[in-house]
Amino acid sequence: MKKSALLLIVLLMTFLTACGGVKNAGDTNQKADNQSEENSNKEEKAAEEAAPNVEIVKQTSGAWMDSIDTVWVHTSAVFENTGDMPVAIGETQMNFKGQDESILGTATMIYSIPEVVMPGETAYITESTILDGITDPAQFKETTFNYNFEETDETSNLLEVSGVKGIKGDEYTQYKVTGIVKNTTEELQDDIRIAAGLYDAEGNLLGVFSGSVDIGINAGSEAGFDLSYPDLPEGIADKVATIDVKAYGWTW
């Protein structure tokens, strides 16, 4: 009897392990050419195509000095699900590199909007932070990314957005995006996460705002939003030609 119970426990643990989610890692660090990859066989290529995959397809970064001589950096990017299955994007880390290839600083615990991305769809990440110990914005060179993601059976839970408007501000808030988000689901959404991608006339990413409506929205109801966070480099307001807003709901 004891042997049977032990065998049952072992089989159950094996089953749970096999069913666990498999995390994948991605980054934008340069990779050396690998001849073996070019010579990989068709079976390996087919397996890669069937695996979940997320890539950063657009990004922008800029550093500036504020009125009290503090150096800031803004980085935002667009994730695209280039695989054939839904993925949940986990945490992203941004690495701010200097002209000498050193790390000037990092930003961690950055999460995409939306978190779940369907095949062929996109999500935004954004962050602005102080570069401590840096006295000249020209010392900043670029941002690289590390992130993780995994296959999921969930959906993006994207909500309807309307009335989107870009408004030029003043010296304190150079630009903001307003609009309306509607709960098009059949249940209360406790929290709505929103991101607004700003693009120029050529489709280049200028920056991304993010925010939330955290008061809860009933099914079929709507609420306004006003996005101006995080701070963006100066001069962006006059370049904005199109705005793309994504909003998704959370239910606790």
TrEMBL record:
Keywords: Signal. Residues 1-20 form the signal peptide. Residues 26-51 are annotated as: Disordered. Residues 39-48 have a biased composition (Basic and acidic residues). The keyword Cytoplasm does not apply. The keyword ATP-binding does not apply. This is Lipoprotein. It comes from Peribacillus faecalis. The lineage of its organism: Bacteria, Bacillati, Bacillota, Bacilli, Bacillales.
